[in-house]
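A quick word before the example. In earlier lectures we treated sequence and structure as two separate objects. From today on, think of them as two lines of the same record. Here is C2H2-type domain-containing protein written that way.
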Amino acid sequence: FCKVINRDPIESYTSLSMGILYNFFNWRLNQQVNKDGRKLCGTKKKSSLSTYWKVFRLCVERATGDKIDPKLNRKMHRALRDLAKKHGLSDEKRVNRCMTIEDLSEQIKTTLNTTEKCFQLGEIRILAVLFLLLLAPAGARPASILRLRFGDIRAVLARDPEGGPHNILTRFTLAFTKTYLGVKDAKTFTVPENFFDPSLFLSPHVYLLGILFRHQVFKAPSLTSPDKLDMLDIHAGEKELPLPLKKEFDDCLVFRRAVKTLTGYDISMDAPITYGMMARWIRRIGEILGFEYATIPYSLRYAAANGLDQSVDVSEALRNLALDHANSVPFQRHYLGREINADTWAILRGQRPQQALIRQACSVGHSISKRRPTDLTVEQAASINTHPLIRKLELQLRRMKRGSNGRAKALRTLRKEKLRLKRSLQETIRHEWTDNQAVDDIERQLRGEWNPNQIVEKGCRPQGSAQKYLVQALAAKCDNTIEGYYRRRNNAINAIILYCTVEEGPTIRRKNTSSAKPQHIYGRDTQEEGPLQEALKTALKAIRVKTEKERPRYCFLCVGKALTLQPDDPLIKDLAREFYTSGDAGKHFRRRHLSILEDHHVIYCRVCDETLENKKHLQNHGLKRHGLRT
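And the structure line, produced from the sequence above:
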């Protein structure tokens, strides 16, 4: 802004006036692209503008050492209201419904069971669950959980003061949190192991220990598997046995993203999972589960805040400390549920409140339905093409010369506009579905045509053997003995360790079809090993060329990767697929494999059982042995 008006920023800070402040915020609200030329999502809420003003005041204070004049501050509040009205900003607040423990359980089960959403690597799916289970008891800001390091975790075997079996305590310290209002003290949360749960889906210990054993983080050289935990005891007269972690992992992040390798995916050494990535995953799982409202990480923070407030074991000061609040005002303004979580009529009449019913009605999952649409049908997606704006853009595109820069830009604009309209249509359909479906259900029931047990089938790929084993291990029942609990816990940890190495690949979006064209349902005949193995044999035979003139339409590195998978792994179908032309296979090879290779990397061809010394050697090998020109 100072460049636009040709003024020095520091000088502008020291000589603020209503005119320059109004023009600055008006200019900011009109911005459509950032300094790098990328399109901005824009400010849509009045509360966002208010937050921007608060941050601006802090910037002025840090730059000049003085606070903004209180009189100017009061005038600016009126100006912000005028700007919000001028730019049509909404004053509607975000829904702050809590995610109950029942909703959390369903969210976790869907995360582990679904194949509609893939996480590239099995460990990322486990981390998505662990994030929820650490966020729920802490009620912390989501970003502080994502920045958790192995050095912030402490595990101990603790003696039960009431005489029960030894308990594994997990302590995690949240050292990173919001700091623009000043540095906050690190807080440590202690979570004890809960014996004899009906299932292990809600056990953070199982997932965390699975990650620790997966990366061999324990300092004791012999502590390499969960079975060894059963052998440990506490010295007489002592209360705890620490389970120390290796010092070299102290600065290593727990929540790291998956990165592409030559033929698959692996966990990154230092690239973190961002808040945006985790928020998108949680939102998508909520859509698959059938929640009406967008599922956000802050739903768990709201739940923890309200749970702490209603607990007789937690004081107001302890609640504020856990939430990083200086006083109770932020809780009352933003966290206290606006859906009144109390049976006020029963209380007024002196009757027993129906608290369980009220609690369910005020939760995120009160209107959950597996029938709720998650994606557009083919007909709905095709209706976008008849939109006047799309027709106008397509007409302009046809008039442009092929290969020109203007045509490429117009094509990008057309694709972005189609995507925007599809998202808008999908949100509209999901928003209107609850009432429309309710009317349809009422009419069907009154006509006697309603079937309450109708199953909604979706065209998803089947679960792999490792995913089935994982879900079965976590859902296993306990035989009410401590030995049986240890056995169940260890089996679940081993299943998690095994699943962490599974490569899921990217999410494959399959188009929905209309009811007039019944879709093929996976899981009835595609789980058989026959079709997958036949496709793999065909691909293996095709990529072994006899002359350099042969041009197969397969990728030999992907086929080699398929040889390492289980016979029933659904990824075999994608890895052993036949491209439309040999040129398409070459394009795939350059984009997917060559683009991430350095010249000095050593590569192994599983099809030929041969080591290739560098990138050039790989290209020559691909041409001579497999007919792949790159």
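Notice the following. The beta strands are 120-121, 153-158, 167-174, 187-192, 240-243, 256-260, 265-272, 503-505, 603-605, 610-612. We will return to this example when we discuss secondary structure assignment.
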